[in-house]
Design brief:
single chain, alpha+beta, five-stranded mixed β-sheet, 24% helix, globular, 3 helices
């Protein structure tokens, strides 16, 4: 119970992943991000999703890797004391997931490092207008 208000309902990160609201990015550790990392479905659609009918040599695993590397470098630019509980801007240059698109365009995202279900640090990548 909060000091001011009783908690009526809580929605855990575990539940959000099970419901598909968040998608785990399992390669985060290999990309140099030391904490469990997930992305919102809206951000995933913009940054990672790739329709195989679009021409080109891209695929979702490569796009996810690019996102993770950009996230790691954005985190590395932050002072250590500003990592936890801060919204870190991340820019990913990606080809939009539309037919005949070939030019990479910048996409602004945010990486939020905060407490997970058990208080451990976790990273959530999202669009700037998401919370």
């Amino acid at each position: 119970m909060s000091e001011l208000w009783p908690v009526i309902h809580a929605y855990s990160r575990r539940q959000a992943i099970a419901d598909g609201v968040l998608v785990e990015l399992n390669l985060a550790g290999e990309a140099g991000i030391p904490w469990p990392t997930a992305i919102t479905t809206a951000a995933r659609e913009e940054a990672i999703a790739w329709d195989e009918s679009n021409r080109g040599i891209q695929d979702e695993s490569g796009r996810a890797w690019d996102l993770l590397i950009c996230t790691r470098f954005a985190m590395a630019r932050q002072p250590r004391e500003q990592l936890v509980e801060h919204r870190i801007p991340v820019t990913v240059h990606r080809v939009p997931n539309i037919a005949r698109a070939t030019v990479a365009r910048p996409l602004q995202l945010v990486a939020y490092i905060g407490p997970g279900d058990d208080g451990e640090p976790v990273v959530t990548v999202m669009l700037p207008d998401e919370d």
